[in-house]
Amino acid sequence: MRPSLLLVRLLAITSTFLALIAANAADRPIIDAGSKLELISSDFELADGPAWDGSWALCFPDVKGGKLYRYLPRNKQVQVVAPEAGRISASFYNHGRLYLSDNGNSQISWLKGKEKIKIAGQDPNAKPPARPNDLVVDKHGGIYYTLTRQGQVIHIDPHGAQSVAVEKIETPNGIALSPDGGTLYVASYAPKKIWAYDIGPNAKASNGRILAEMDDGPDKGADGMTVDRAGNVYCAGAKDVWIWSPGGRLLGKIRTPERPINCAFGDSDLRSLYITGFGGLYRQRMNVYGLAPHPPADPEFQPANESRPSTVIPRGVRLEQDLVYGQDGERRLLADMAAPTKKAKARPAIVVVHGGGWLNGDKTKFRALTLALAKRGYVTMSVGYRLGFEAPFPAGIQDCNAAVRFLRANAGDYGVDPERIGAVGGSAGGHLVGLMATGWNVEGLQGAAGNPDHTSRLQAAIVMAGPMQIASGSVADRSRTAGDKSNANHWIGRTIDQHMAAYKLADAYEHISADDPPILFMRGEHDRPEADIPSMEKLKAGGVWTDQKVYQNGKHGCWNRNPWFEKMVEDMDLFFQANMK
Predict the structure, then answer these.
(1) Are residue 70 and residue 194 in the same domain, yes or no?
(2) Is the CB of residue 238 less than 8 Å from the CB of residue 217?
(3) What is the domain-level CATH number for residue 252?
(4) Which of 216, 465, 535, 541 has the fewest beta carbons under 10 Å from its own?
């Protein structure tokens, strides 16, 4: 459909703004310039490899003191978790478990309460001693760890079998995986080189090449590593934590008072880089986001929280994690895709969009919903999209639209009917789904992340408590009155009065037309159901089917809580069945 004259004018007005935003995103420093390096605590002998537990605590070992600690950002407390942990050189959290590089016992373990459970290890009597240094856990539950003296990287498969993944590398120390799991990074301590390896289906590393080198003098020290959601690589050096892009371009350094040892992202928004070392535990706020750990798929590691729906993979459902669905420059966009294992004709697909105020959250937040809808016969795709501090509007909505185009372009590979693609999102994710539904033909919302020959139009959409109105209503009011506390001001990069055209471009209500797909609104009883009325009235006036479901005693976010979860999934299924025939 050709854009209306009004839309053409709107796009012309906003073109200069969008170019400015793109330039700002490219020039934005990776380190938050408004935040200084903060000392959290130096109350231990030598802090080493830290790990965020996915919800509320940072775990880290005192490698010399033989203890395992955790830091609670909410109340700024450091607590001892395991007072007799022994010589632990690193930790890593994934799939509901805290994994440990048990250097003192020449093994890899996981922590159960205060007890270390052995997974696999080396001969403790080997000469020279074969002691694990650092480790990383992949999306399948496989583990890679470094043996520094042996010049090797060892892989442990999910069943506990070990194999050599990399050999003949000089003093391997820190280790990390790219967000999609396709590249293994290893820090060569003495020569201060960062190696990159391709990871194949059998977990064997190949095509080793040097990504980057530390050229800061004779001191040794390419140590612990991590990556962020954009794929940037971090490594503790002799004086600084170095940061490179996925292609090896130096993005910045973080100087610490004493030598850093390791680093990991943490805090509820995953925007804090925690650095451990000789000076203690430090925190630096960033303009990028760390990787969220994958939720547990094994019932044994499900948290004891009856209010949350299960993330255990149901029987008859398969899950593919960290699938690359698009790319913008060096930035790869990832999604988790679930589908029934039973063969069938092309199935309807649903794009699942998480919330978080455009500034927080990640694709794992809707893991339970992704699995529950797949169990009902859909191919579901929970998308990760760029959040506001990494890349301002319109990056996030462009990513969501790229996901729809990916499904259409690859429909045959994933058993998808390209004419039956819907979407569901909650809160800010609900807004993005509403904008996908009504702005599908707006050029400025599409982006260049892939498959431009396919349309991003949806056949049906569910908006769960998402603000359809951005240029008016509560979002606009807060932009004018809340300053830095307005999420929209951070996400769009300006206030509404500075760039009204951008707020209109982001406004799903503004784009409503007769060509839009059916939209179902869902809200908890105590989550302002009346906020959907203007959009529903405008949709009905244009002849577009719409309705609203209100859930008794429900508050914001009830779609991801029991007892509302199952009923809401049932209503989603009925809606998609009726509108994606």
Answers:
(1) yes
(2) yes
(3) 2.120.10.30
(4) 541
> What's the CA gap between 192 and 185, in Å, rounded?
13
| HSE-up (13 A, CA, CB side) for residue 523 | 16
Query: How far lies 135's CA from each of 45, 192, 256, 354, 449, in Å?
Result: 21, 18, 23, 29, 32
The residue type of 414 is Y
* Cβ contact 91:61 at 8 Å: yes
Number of domains in the chain: 2
Dihedral sign computed on CA atoms, order 335, 339, 341, 342: negative
- Report the distance separating Cα 196 and Cα 70, nearest Å: 31
The two three-digit tokens of residue 381, written as one number: 């795709």
In angstroms, the CA 509 to CA 155 distance is: 51
If you count them, how many residues does the chain have? 581
Residue type at 288? V
The whole-angstrom separation of Cα 228 and Cα 80 is 27
- 75 in the same domain as 9: no
Domain assignment of residue 296, yes or no: no
Beta strand pairing call for 317-328 and 183-188: unpaired
- Give start and end residues of each alpha helix (H) in 298-394: 367-375
161 and 16, same structural domain?
A: no
Structure tokens at 219: 């001191």
* Segments of 246-302 assigned E as strands: 250-255, 260-266, 272-277, 280-285
Q: At 452, which CATH number?
A: 3.40.50.1820
> How many Å is the Cα radius of gyration of the chain?
24
257, 332: one domain: no
Our CA angle for 391, 396, 401, nearest 5°, is 145
Q: Where are the alpha helices (DSSP H) in 303-455?
A: 367-375, 395-409, 411-414, 428-438
Instruction: State phi, psi for 426 to the nearest 5 degrees.
Output: -120, 140
Containing structural domain, residue 541: 5-28+314-579
Domain-embedded: residue 299: no
**The token pair that represents 334 in the structure block:** 């990832």
Q: Which residue is associated with the tokens 């503004």?
A: 510
CB atoms within 10 A of CB 547: 14
Q: Is residue 258 part of a domain?
A: yes
pLDDT digits (tens, 9 = 90+) for 300-312: 888 777 889 999 9
Instruction: Tell whether pTM > 0.85.
Output: yes
> 274-329: per-residue pLDDT in tens?
999 999 999 999 999 999 999 999 888 887 778 899 999 999 999 999 999 999 99
